[in-house]
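Contributing new records

If you add data, match the layout below exactly. Sequence lines come first and carry their own label; structure lines follow with theirs. Keep one chain per record. Anything else will be rejected by the validation script.
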Amino acid sequence: MKKLLLLGAFAFLGGAAQAQEGFKLGGHIGAPVGDAADFASFTLGVDAAYMWNITKGLDVGVATGYSHFFGKDRWEDFGFIPLAASGKYRFNGLPLFVGLDLGGAISTKDGIDSGLYVYPKVGFQLPKAELYLGYQNIGSERGDWDRDRDRRIDSNFGAINLGVNFFLK
């Protein structure tokens, strides 16, 4: 019985090591960190990407989506639409990967500037999906003056996200 379970585990993990070229769609939920924690209580978003397999274990592509930050206290909700190059490396023989999205993020809220978008990720590869933990960071300026703290709000809007993407071929 142990041999059968071991064989089944290797078959499952072996299927996860195949190239995942094509379209992927998913979502994430996260906790704002740094400056974003002053303005938002949590974030939800959708992710979309198209990836090409370049070589064994390495995929590159383009990524977009939408991240919505839910405002807290006197702050309104705000969001960003990223447009980024995406890279992902799957470790040989393991169902683990590291990834990075790098590009720009367009603000959907007046008074918040668009900015540089950086999104490193680590994750677990499944045959038809991927689970990941990532740190999303958007370097931006907010045009408002924070009267309580007597300063202009120049912020990096960051969030620690937990997400899942499904492969749609």
